[in-house]
């Protein structure tokens, strides 16, 4: 079965991990510092705070934003459930707003209509690697006194009007899961230009520990002393995984370029199919194309999906609308709330998309899709 996503590991990655394993530091050491500096530079901001997963990065980001019980977070339902769940775990009420029918990204007008006096964060997701309309969300956030969070789990390496994803929002989160644009096996990061947000993020991901004696309540206790002023968690990314990330980051441009080649090949071969929509990006966006979300007739989606699987093509569907999950249904959320997102979901099939796909693999996928759609 040809997978829909797969990591790309070479000898330089293996060597980096081995060097870290043979060093004095397996965690909280220099490889973490090195990786965070490289991620921040790539993002075009001052700070990167690594975490153990993309989900952990979202949890850290919402905590840094000061989300508390009773606050509201406006976000998209067309995402993995973690985008909403991590805010809900801090006590937020999640308000889902509909998406742009062309890109699947959160619609700024729908998001603004969902804002109330309790809203604290608007969280857009770069679906498939296409950057959200950051200027519109920055404007919305400034006018309403909100923070703009960009869930960029799909989009490290993407740019908008020449600016890297990571520099567009108050807080941006990355995921480094194996199928993402680069991997640390599991891992993620929060990036920001804001010193205070970075400090709060760094504290939350490290138990809330305060080691700076100038900030401690009892600094004369002894040189070993450390204090917890606010609760946090252990979301520290180990040096071994950070070393892999630094190695991967050096090859990110090559990964992005290969994804663009695959996307162009799919576009050229599939754009003439009746009832099928290929993924698009708005002017000024240069996506890293984490996914290739093909949309097929809704009434035939399962048939086409199963045909592709039977032909050995490991397709996937991204995503079940977040509020369809029973955990949100049990809170009173109902189907039909975001009809555009639900229509997108009912038609979507993710084709294989990863740098290790050969040209022959791509042709195999194309032939299988054309056969499946033809019926």
SSE inventory with pairings:
Blueprint: H1 11-21, H2 30-43, E1 47-51, H3 54-64, E2 72-75, H4 82-88, E3 93-96, H5 108-114, E4 119-125, H6 134-144, E5 147-151, E6 159-160, E7 163-164, E8 171-175, E9 188-192, H7 195-204, E10 209-210, E11 227-228, H8 239-249, H9 252-270, E12 285-286, E13 292-295, H10 301-310, H11 326-329, H12 339-347, E14 348-351, H13 359-374
Helix pairs in contact: 1-8, 2-8, 3-4, 3-7, 9-13, 10-13
Which features characterize this protein?
three-stranded antiparallel beta sheet; alpha/beta; seven-stranded mixed beta sheet; 13 helices; 14 strands; single chain; 375 residues
Summarize the structure.
With 375 residues, the protein is an alpha/beta fold. The protein has helices at 11-21, 30-43, 54-64, 82-88, 108-114, 134-144, 195-204, 239-249, 252-270, 301-310, 326-329, 339-347, 359-374; strands at 47-51, 72-75, 93-96, 119-125, 147-151, 159-160, 163-164, 171-175, 188-192, 209-210, 227-228, 285-286, 292-295, 348-351. The two termini are 21 Å apart.
């Amino acid at each position: 079965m040809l997978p829909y996503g797969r990591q790309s590991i070479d000898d330089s990655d293996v060597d980096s991990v081995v060097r870290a394993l043979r060093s004095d530091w397996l965690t909280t050491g220099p490889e973490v510092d090195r990786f965070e500096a490289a991620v921040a530079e790539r993002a075009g901001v001052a700070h990167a705070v690594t975490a153990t997963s993309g989900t952990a990065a979202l949890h850290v980001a919402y905590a840094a934003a000061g989300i508390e019980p009773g606050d509201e977070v406006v976000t998209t339902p067309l995402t993995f459930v973690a985008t909403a769940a991590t805010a809900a775990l801090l006590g937020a009420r999640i308000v889902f707003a509909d998406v742009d029918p062309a890109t699947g990204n959160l619609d700024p007008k729908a998001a603004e209509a969902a804002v109330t006096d309790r809203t604290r964060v608007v969280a857009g997701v770069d679906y498939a690697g296409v950057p959200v309309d950051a200027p519109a969300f920055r404007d919305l956030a400034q006018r309403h006194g909100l923070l703009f969070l960009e869930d960029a789990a799909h989009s490290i390496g993407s740019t908008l009007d020449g600016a890297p994803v990571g520099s567009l929002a108050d807080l941006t989160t990355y995921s480094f899961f194996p199928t993402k644009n680069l991997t640390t096996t599991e891992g993620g990061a929060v990036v920001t230009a804001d010193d205070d947000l970075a400090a709060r993020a760094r504290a939350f991901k490290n138990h809330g520990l305060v080691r700076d004696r100038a900030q401690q309540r009892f600094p004369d206790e002894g040189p070993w002393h450390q204090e917890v002023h606010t609760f946090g968690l252990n979301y520290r990314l180990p040096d071994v995984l950070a070393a892999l990330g630094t190695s991967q980051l050096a090859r990110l441009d090559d990964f992005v370029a290969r994804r663009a080649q695959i996307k162009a090949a799919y576009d050229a071969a599939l754009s003439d199919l009746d009832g099928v929509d290929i993924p698009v990006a708005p002017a000024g966006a240069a996506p890293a194309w984490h996914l290739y979300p093909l949309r097929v007739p809704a009434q035939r989606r399962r048939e086409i999906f199963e045909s592709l699987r039977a032909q050995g093509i490991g397709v996937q569907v991204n995503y079940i609308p977040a509020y369809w999950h029973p955990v949100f249904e049990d809170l009173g959320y109902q189907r039909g709330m975001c009809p555009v997102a639900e229509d997108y979901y009912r038609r979507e099939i993710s084709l294989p998309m990863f740098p290790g796909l050969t040209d022959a693999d791509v042709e195999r996928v194309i032939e299988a899709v054309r056969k499946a759609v033809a019926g």
